[in-house]
Specification:
Herpes Virus-1; about 350 residues; mainly alpha; two-stranded antiparallel ribbon; rod-shaped; three-stranded antiparallel sheet; about 10% strand
Length: about 350
C-alpha cells in the first residue's frame, strides 16, 4: 500500500491527488487546482475568470521541468486522468476499511466444503488454495506444503499492490502514447490541408495560363474576322452603288423605247447606249478571291498538351522547386495551318507537380 500511495501523491500539495486529476504532456499528474496555482504563478499577467486563467499560456512541470503549453482553455484544456481518479477512490476505500475500526459485525467465516464444521484457516501452497487443518491432517492436502493464511494474505496483498502501482505507471505510459497519436493525427490533418491548398494553387496557375492563351488566340481570330468583314462590306457597297446606277439606266432606256417621236428617240438613244456600255462593264470592281471566307488556318490541336495534362502527378523524388521549369517559355505555342500563338509560353510543370507526355 505504501508504494501505491507514493504513486498517488501530488508533487505540489504533497497530498493524495484531489479530483479532478489532470495529466500533463510529459505524463506526470497534478491536481487541477494545483496545476492552476502553478500556472497562475508562472503567468501572473494573464486574464483570469473566477480565479482560473482562461487564456493560453505555459508553465513547467514541477516533476521534470518539461514546459507545458496550454491553449485558450488554460488548465481546463488538460485531459483528465480518469484511471488515476478511479485508483484513488479504490485506495481511499481500502484505507478506510483497514484504518478505521469497523463496528462489531460478525463476518461470516468461510467453512471447509469437505469438513463442514472446520473453518478455513491455512493455505495450501502446493495447490494454491485455502483449506482447513483437517484436510492437511487427514484429507487431500496431507502431503502438501501449507502456510498460515495471514502470511500468504500479506504476501499476495503486497504483490497485488505492487502490480497495481506498476499497472498505473504502465497506463500512464500508454496514455502518453495515446496523446502522441492524437498529436500525430492533428499534424497529419494540418499537413494534408496545407498540401491540398498548394495543389489547388498550382492548378489555379495552370488555369490562368490557359485562360491567357485562349484570350490571345481568340483575339487573333476575331481580328482577322473583323478585317475580312470590313473588306466585304466595302465591296458590297461598291456593287450596290453600281447596281443602283445600272437600274436607273435600265429605267431610262425603257422610257426611251416608249418615245413615239423618232427625232426625240434618236437624240437620247446614242448617249443611252454609251451609258449602257459603261454600266455593263464591271471590270473595275474588285472580285473576292476563292476561299477568302476560309478560316481553317486557325485550326488548333492540343493532343500533346492533353497528354501532358493527363500525366500531371506528384513529384516522385525530392526535387527542388522549379527544377522542372528550366527552359520553359522559349517556344511559342503553334497551331495547324501556319497560325502561331503569341503572348504566353507553353505550360510548364509546376512546383510540387510533374507533367510529362509521350509522343
Amino acid at each position: 500500500m505504501e508504494s501505491l500511495e507514493k504513486q498517488l501523491i501530488c508533487p505540489i500539495c504533497l497530498e493524495i491527488f484531489t479530483k479532478p486529476v489532470v495529466i500533463l504532456p510529459c505524463q506526470h499528474n497534478l491536481c487541477r487546482k494545483c496545476a492552476n496555482d502553478v500556472f497562475q504563478a508562472s503567468n501572473p499577467y494573464l486574464p483570469t475568470r473566477g480565479g482560473a486563467v482562461t487564456s493560453g499560456g505555459r508553465f513547467r512541470c514541477p516533476s521534470c521541468r518539461h514546459e507545458v503549453v496550454l491553449d485558450r482553455h488554460g488548465v481546463y484544456g488538460l485531459q483528465r486522468n480518469l484511471l488515476v481518479e478511479n485508483i484513488i477512490d479504490m485506495y481511499k476505500q481500502q484505507s478506510t476499511s483497514t484504518s478505521q475500526p469497523a463496528p462489531e459485525v460478525k463476518v461470516a467465516q468461510p467453512m471447509c466444503e469437505v469438513h463442514e464444521d472446520e473453518k478455513i484457516n491455512i493455505y495450501c501452497v502446493t495447490c494454491s488454495t485455502p483449506t482447513c487443518s483437517m484436510c492437511k491432517v487427514f484429507g487431500v492436502h496431507k502431503d502438501c506444503e501449507v502456510a498460515p493464511l495471514n502470511s500468504i494474505y500479506q504476501n499476495q496483498k503486497t504483490e497485488l499492490t505492487d502490480r497495481i502501482a506498476m499497472m498505473v505507471s504502465n497506463n500512464e505510459r500508454v496514455q502518453g502514447i495515446i496523446s502522441q497519436l492524437e498529436e500525430t493525427c492533428r499534424i497529419i490533418e494540418e499537413n494534408s490541408r496545407r498540401q491540398k491548398s498548394a495543389v489547388c494553387e498550382k492548378f489555379d496557375q495552370l488555369y490562368s495560363i490557359m485562360e491567357d492563351r485562349k484570350r490571345d488566340m481568340t483575339l487573333k481570330v476575331s481580328a482577322e474576322q473583323e478585317e475580312k468583314l470590313n473588306y466585304i462590306q466595302r465591296l458590297k457597297r461598291k456593287y450596290s452603288d453600281h447596281l443602283e446606277t445600272a437600274t436607273k439606266i435600265v429605267e431610262s432606256g425603257i422610257q426611251t423605247m416608249e418615245e413615239p417621236e423618232m427625232a426625240v428617240f434618236l437624240q437620247t438613244a446614242k448617249s443611252l447606249l454609251i451609258k449602257i456600255g459603261e454600266a455593263t462593264n464591271t471590270s473595275h470592281l474588285e472580285k473576292v478571291e476563292r476561299g477568302y471566307e476560309n478560316m481553317d488556318h486557325y485550326a488548333v490541336s492540343f493532343l500533346k498538351e492533353q497528354r501532358a495534362l493527363r500525366s500531371i502527378d506528384f513529384i516522385a523524388d525530392e526535387e527542388e522547386e522549379g527544377e522542372g521549369e528550366e527552359g520553359a517559355g522559349t517556344e511559342e505555342e503553334t497551331t495547324e495551318g501556319g497560325a502561331s500563338g503569341s503572348g504566353a509560353p507553353p505550360i510548364a510543370p509546376q512546383s510540387g507537380l510533374k507533367a510529362s507526355a509521350s509522343s
